[in-house]
Amino acid sequence: MLRQFLANTSLYDLPLIAMGIFVAIFGVVVIRICQRSRAPEYRRMASLPLENDSQSE
């Protein structure tokens, strides 16, 4: 099936398909980050590097 697809498309179509997939995934990530319902989770994760470890060496 993949061979048939590649045989029927020119090589100029493949970068456009790859760019479309990239833009779609990027859009999903941006939408997920901008959701206000996830804000408390992101604030908690943002403060993790600043917390003291209870198991210090």
Give an account of the 3D structure.
The structure is a single chain. The chain has a domain of 34 residues. The chain starts with a helix and ends in a 10-residue tail after the last helix. The longest helix is centred in the middle third of the chain and has 21 residues. The model has no long low-confidence stretch (mean pLDDT 83). It is elongated. With 57 residues, it is an all-alpha fold. It has three helices and no strands. 65% of the residues lie in helices and 0% in strands.
Q: What brief labels describe this structure?
A:
mainly alpha, elongated, 3 helices, 57 residues
Radius of gyration: 21 Å
What is the end-to-end distance?
Answer: 57 Å
Helix content: 55-70%
Q: Tell me, briefly, the overall form.
A: elongated
User: Low-confidence parts, pLDDT < 50 over ≥5 residues?
Assistant: none
Beta-strand share of residues:
under 5%
Q: Main β-sheet: number of strands, strand sense, barrel status?
A: none
Supply the helix-strand structural class: mainly alpha
Number of helices, where a helix is a run of at least 4 consecutive DSSP H or I residues:
3
Counted beta strands: 0
Mean pLDDT score, rounded? 83
Q: List the helices and strands in order.
A: HHH
